[in-house]
């Protein structure tokens, strides 16, 4: 291999790390049944619990506001409509619209609220995933459940991959391999 080819290969390898953001959304090849979804991830790092005070905010109103943002672009570190959103910046923006203080990083949501089974999840629950690499046992991506009907989950999140920006996704095999848990912060 020539020196030039080695340099290009090395540059492409390094560039691939910069292109990985909160999440890559892949084409849905199969939508698993909620009953079959189990987390294989045990959170290893020590993250303190977070109390999120939702007050009297209606989770349906909060999710409807989040859904109004579908199509806004992805931007690493972003937390505004002007610059775009990353996953935690998107949730930060949505919750702050309702004067609810929330963490700014996906990992900080690891122990927010009460963990519930994915089959029992409701509109407004938080859904947590690893980052793009499911072998790293840390929460690196987060979304908000919008629907749990007919045993199928839909969630809204800011994705950096193929469908860049704020999108609605279903639980595909891609997300199942990265699934960590569902946390409930609203009182139903």
Descriptive report:
The protein has 188 residues and is of the alpha+beta class. It has one domain (22-184): endopeptidase domain like (from Nostoc punctiforme) (endopeptidase fold (from Nostoc punctiforme)), CATH 3.90.1720.10. 21% of the residues lie in helices and 23% in strands. It is built from four helices and eight strands, in the order H-H-E-E-H-E-E-E-E-E-H-E. The chain has helices at residues 3-18, 59-67, 87-97, 173-176, and strands at 79-80, 84-85, 114-116, 126-130, 139-149, 152-159, 165-170, 179-184. The strands form two sheets. The chain has a six-stranded antiparallel β-sheet with strand order 3-8-4-5-6-7. The chain has a two-stranded antiparallel ribbon with strand order 1-2. The longest helix has 16 residues, at 3-18. The termini are far apart. 36% of the residues are buried.
Any idea of the CATH class?
A: Alpha Beta
> How are helices and strands ordered from N to C?
HHEEHEEEEEHE
What is the rounded Rg? 17 Å
- CATH topology (level 3) name: endopeptidase fold (from Nostoc punctiforme)
| β-strand amount | 15-25%
Task: Summarize the main sheet.
Answer: 6 strands, antiparallel
The CATH superfamily is: endopeptidase domain like (from Nostoc punctiforme)
Residue-averaged pLDDT: 83
Keywords:
single chain; 188 residues; alpha+beta; endopeptidase fold (from Nostoc punctiforme); 6-stranded antiparallel β-sheet; two-stranded antiparallel sheet; 8 strands; globular
Could you write a compact summary of the structure shown?
The chain is of the alpha+beta class and 188 residues long. The protein has helices at residues 3-18, 59-67, 87-97, 173-176, and strands spanning 79-80, 84-85, 114-116, 126-130, 139-149, 152-159, 165-170, 179-184.
